[in-house]
Amino acid sequence: MRARSALAAALATAVILAGLGWWARYELYHQRINAIRAQAQDEMNTLQGVLSAGSLPSEYGPLPYEITASGSNATFGSSQDLEPFENGNRSRALPAPGTLWQARGVRTVRFGRPPGSGGDRLAGGTFPALTSDLPASSISGKGVAAVDLPPGANMRIYVIMIPFDAQATVAAADRFLLPAGLVGVLLVAAVAYAATRRALHPVEAIRVRTASVTATDPRERVEVPDTGDEIAALATTINATLQRLDDAAALQRRFVADAAHELRSPLATLLTSLEVALVYPDRTDWKATVATAARQTHRLQALTEDLLLLARIDAGPPPHTTTVTDLAALAGELAHEYRTAPPALRQCAAGALTIDCDAPPPAPVRAERGELERILRNLLDNAVRHAAHRIELTIRTEGADVVAEVRDDGPGIPAADIERVFDRFTRLDDARARDYGGAGLGLAIARDLAHRRQGTLTLTPPTGPTTTGARFVLLLPHAEGPQTPATPCPVS
């Protein structure tokens, strides 16, 4: 990355310096050309004054010049450096006769290569020339009148603008610009390389520290520089990620330990009863032993199914489903099932439970029926374990959501434990007995399934005339579409 950054900076600098150098050469060249043109104009004005006075100028000015006349091959004056090119060795473009002497323009003069012009810088070149015409009649009676000119002839003055000075100036600038540009490119590349190396030094430190982190021990943290820039933000984000990994690893270790603890109890009970029966076969009540083994096996089966379900939930989001289930109809079916269950399954400390259901259909939600049934069963099982006399199951629609509420009149849950009851393998003090309180996975599974379908499950304080007991509120997005036909909620 350091080399790439330096190369990119060098290329960008080279492009910029090349553009600036071209612009500088262009401006310098044209400034010199303009200066030469102004010099040619001054020389033209002087030559016009001399010619208008009736004299033929001798050598004058720094730029080559020549005076000719239309209709004549004679040269009436020229610079010494044009002598090798006389006798038709250059071409001119004369204006039509009668053009006023004020009509000035820039023409081009092309020089040939006559004998004796070898090595001359003008030989074979084409140069711009400033031209001006004077009617010969305007200077008649003066020194020029002695020249034999046809009637209506024009005197033409050429002042050739030689760009050698501008070219020499640009060449001198090139001798400075090219080395300076190369040094500038190398300097920018070196600075970019050093700056990138310095900027990436904290990144390298972060990489080395992060490489030492393992999945089983993500307790390492990277050092956050006090620069307040993107590197510091990266270090902060990595530390937050490592903290989440650490929390996940701790949660996994706790989950494995709790699962092993929960599995160990029914296995120990099952193994003990079977070993005692084998040691004392004659004094064993085999019917009771088999019943105990079956009961513990059912516990193991239920716990294993819960663990598998949690593993599927933790594996990722569920696939999109188009199934729409009427939550009101499902609630009515479950309420009826719990009312008609054997008395031993719905007994509480005070006697038989009353289960009231208020679920006016329909209440469609986009979820699998099995998921919704598992949520409601877990909530009802929890309510059955803790209710004193009564359980209320209510389904209603609030705006774009379907709300299911399960409420009991039991002792309630302390405020400090409102969120803790949703943790896995959590049982409060009054539910510590495993035969009574379960494994502590029901509410955790219910909340995870609700979140799986973009819903929520919360424990809120009771409202209304009764302010005791627990009140669980399930909220799921309302869905439109074909659904299971609504079954009216049976009257309790």
Describe this structure in words.
The chain has a six-stranded antiparallel sheet with strand order 2-1-6-5-4-3, with helices on one face. A five-stranded mixed sheet has the order 10-12-13-15-14. It has eight helices and 15 strands. By secondary structure, it is an alpha+beta fold. Strand 12 and strand 13 (401-408) form a beta hairpin. 23% of the residues are buried.
The residue ranges in which pLDDT falls below 50 over 5 or more consecutive positions are 88-104, 431-437, 481-488
Supply Rg.
52 Å
Task: Return the average pLDDT rounded to an integer.
Answer: 78
Instruction: State the strand order across the main sheet.
Output: 2-1-6-5-4-3
Order of helices and strands: HEEEEEEHHHEHEEEEHEEHHEE
Which sheet architecture does the biggest sheet show? 6 strands, antiparallel
Helix tally? 8
Structural class: alpha+beta
Strand content: 15-25%
* Estimated helix fraction: 40-55%
Shape: rod-shaped
Short description, anyone?
With 492 residues, the protein is of the alpha+beta class. The chain is built from 8 helices and 15 strands. Helix 4 (286-314) packs parallel to helix 8 (442-452) and helix 5 (327-339) packs across helix 6.
